[in-house]
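New to this. Please check this fold:
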Amino acid sequence: MSALSTVIVPINRAGWPFILAFAVVTLILFWLSTFLGWIGVILTAWCAYFFRDPDRVVPTRPGLMVSPADGLVQMITKAVPPPELGMGPEPLTRISIFLNVFNVHINRTPIEGTVTRAEYHPGKFLNAALDKASDLNERMSIRLAMPDGREIAFVQIAGLVARRIICTLKPGQSVSTGERYGLIRFGSRTDIYLPDGVQPLVVVGQKALGGETILADLASTEPQRQGVVR
């Protein structure tokens, strides 16, 4: 990785129409008022920052499950996967990662496998930090079969500000760990449901990096980790 690439972070292509729109509005604001124009510059810079798409160093050992998003590990609980995925009524361990408007919003596949279901569910736009957002908010749910036959689910959830979920995954598609597969615009949450018996290797309050932070190890016998914020 070159020194220049660590300074100039790529912008996701989905962001360019928004950045251009902000820039045009900024020019109009400068025509009206220098003060308003500089506010437009700040907002345009923030828009470009929001759609940044940095490369990540993805662990390649089979069985390692990485975070599908940047953000804060907000909840680790037992919950039934979205019904539209047809994974049954048994609760699985769910890790919820909350993304604020300053996090990278690119989503990445948590582990290699084959997509078996990709289901969009319309819904509300409640605060994504709320537990009920998993059930009530707009979401895009993915069911993935791993090479060992076990399955996981991961879900993009729209938030209070987010109004657009982008997902490029289709049933039958094979993916590698850490592949980019979509984004959620302007604040959101991503849930991941672990296979039965697999324990999370992160704790509530921990910051996760999409594609890098290891959420679980399919080969590990380590019990669920505990931690405190200091």
Notes: The CA atoms of residues 19 and 118 lie 29 Å apart. The chain has two domains: 3-50, 64-217.
